[in-house]
Amino acid sequence: MYVAVKGGERAIDNAHAWLAEERRGDRDVAELSLAQIREQLTLAVNRVMAEGSLYDPDLAALAIKQSRGDLIEAIFLMRAYRTTLPRFGYSAPVQTADMACDRRISATFKDAPGGQVLGPTFDYTHRLLDFKLAADGDVPDAPAAPPRAEPTPHIASFLRDEGLLQDEPLSDADPVDITRTPMSYPAGRAVRLQSLTRGDEGFILGMAYSTQRGYARNHAFVGELRIGKVDVALEIPELGFAIDIGEIELTECETVNQFTGSKTQPPQFTRGYGLVFGQSERKAIAMALVDRALRWKELGEDDLGAAAQDEEFILSHSDNIQATGFLEHIKLPHYVDFQSELELVRKLRREAEDTVATQVQEAAE
Question: What's the CA gap between 93 and 124, in Å, rounded?
Answer without folding.
Answer: 34
